[in-house]
Amino acid sequence: MPVARVVVDVMLKPEILDPQGQAVQRALPRLGFEGIADVRQGKRFELEVEGPVDEAALGRIHEMAETFLANTVIEDFTVKVEKAEESK
Amino acid sequence: MPVARVVVDVMLKPEILDPQGQAVQRALPRLGFEGIADVRQGKRFELEVEGPVDEAALGRIHEMAETFLANTVIEDFTVKVEKAEESK
């Protein structure tokens, strides 16, 4: 049965302060890495989906991201189909 | 000056147990979401890079990911250039 990988990326909304990202950004020059104007840190979910990733499946994943994977009060999310492959 | 966004995705290596991903996966059926064979959770870093993202800049970001953003003993990472835009 084909298994497809769908990636849900969850990032803080731009207007929300990102202390983790700022901590990383402040540390970079001390480690010798210049030229990074901003750093934002978020979560990446890789979902292995059984069966075809059709409109219905994507709709379900969208709903899953909205209700469970992201806190949509402070976070935005994107849903991307990465690839479909035969499961081993 | 052009600002480009480079994304560093950090995921646990496949052979490493992912308790967070498993917790999400176990919760999904209870929330009515079927058909998700596996869930892996990782980190996504969005870096705003000053100046052109040429070979040298990508090399630096690769080194930054290897030494600072990822723990390469248990994690893999990928580096992707997302887009270049005129900074506001």
Automatic annotation (TrEMBL), chains A, B:
EC number from the UniProt entry: 6.3.5.3
Keyword Ligase in annotation: yes
Compartmental location: Cytoplasm
GO biological process, one term: 'de novo' IMP biosynthetic process
Domain of life: Bacteria
Pfam families for the chain: PurS (PF02700)
Pathway named in the protein's UniProt entry: Purine metabolism; IMP biosynthesis via de novo pathway; 5-amino-1-(5-phospho-D-ribosyl)imidazole from N(2)-formyl-N(1)-(5-phospho-D-ribosyl)glycinamide: step 1/2
One cellular component (GO) term of this entry: cytoplasm
Family, similarity comment: Belongs to the PurS family.
NCBIfam families (alphabetical): phosphoribosylformylglycinamidine synthase subunit PurS, PRK05974.1
Function according to Swiss-Prot or TrEMBL: Part of the phosphoribosylformylglycinamidine synthase complex involved in the purines biosynthetic pathway. Catalyzes the ATP-dependent conversion of formylglycinamide ribonucleotide (FGAR) and glutamine to yield formylglycinamidine ribonucleotide (FGAM) and glutamate. The FGAM synthase complex is composed of three subunits. PurQ produces an ammonia molecule by converting glutamine to glutamate. PurL transfers the ammonia molecule to FGAR to form FGAM in an ATP-dependent manner.
Subunit organization: Part of the FGAM synthase complex composed of 1 PurL, 1 PurQ and 2 PurS subunits.
Matching PANTHER family: PHOSPHORIBOSYLFORMYLGLYCINAMIDINE SYNTHASE SUBUNIT PURS (PTHR34696:SF1)
UniProt-recorded name of the protein: Phosphoribosylformylglycinamidine synthase subunit PurS
Annotated organism of origin: Streptomyces sp. NBC_00008
Primary gene name: purS
